[in-house]
Amino acid sequence: MSIKPQVISLPAELLTQIFALLPLLPDVLNLAATCKRLQEVWTNKLNTIYTSIAPKTILCQHDARRLLADSGGPSPGSPLSSPENVRSILHNSRIVEKAIVRFEQEVVPRVQAAGFDLGKYYGSSTCHHLPHLTPGERRRFTKAYYIVLSLLHHSSETWSNILQPLTLKSLYILHEISQLNQYLPGEEVNTNLAEDRRILSYQGGEKRIQLHHFISAALARKYERVWGMRLLDPWMESHSEGALWFVVVWTHWQESLKEICCGPVRASKERKLEVNMDEVWEDSEDDGT
Question: In the chain, what is the greatest distance between 2 CA atoms, to the nearest angstrom?
Answer without folding.
Answer: 75
